[in-house]
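Dear colleagues,

As part of the handover before I leave the project, I'm documenting each prediction I ran so the next person doesn't have to rerun anything. This entry is a single chain, and its sequence is reproduced below.
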Amino acid sequence: MAEAIPQTTTAAAGPSVRAPLAAAVLVSAVTLSVATFELGMADWPSGFVLLLVVPLVALIFCGCALWSATLLLRLRKGGLKFALPFLACALTLAVLVYAPLHQIALQQNFNWHRKSRERIVARIEAGELKPNVSYNKRLIALGDREPNASAGGNDIVVDEADEGTYVLFLTTRGLKHYFTGFLRVPPGGDPKKFFEFEDKPPSQLVRYDKDWYFVAN
């Protein structure tokens, strides 16, 4: 009597969701990175890059979200795992809509550069740093040897007033004299008295700490 040969059965591997999930996570991460660090790229000339990067990333993210939604049609046969790419896109969209990414980026900028900026202010008040740009008597070009404390070429703006020295560290430097930045006012000073706001008050004025304000014209 011939010995029966045992037969082994292997379950057929179901369709994998790893590649779609990896794609959704990658697109979501890039989208969040651009949204978070857009502030640091917004000054001239990299602001022109954003005119291409932001719409392109937005288009890719929307396409990815729609594509991940089509995977929901495979839930019945493939299981709940096919909902993961859509959930990744949905979570990213919720963060973009509700999370204060711009404020987070500003707070990081303020914290990371604060000590360097305070040292620069102290040197200005001590007379070690003075305006050194021929065409602008209020501009100090720090150059590459100094810590990168200001956007748009590491230039800072100073305003000598009766109450002390106002020092502006730029976060964006756009066209038509548009700027945003952190303004250090002298003790007892008023950020609205900064010379840039003589004709028009700042469009944004947010206090970050004693004598430190985020301003925009």
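Confidence is low (pLDDT under 50) at residues 7-12. Helices lie at 18-41, 46-70, 75-78, 84-98, 101-125, 151-154.

All the best with the project,
I.
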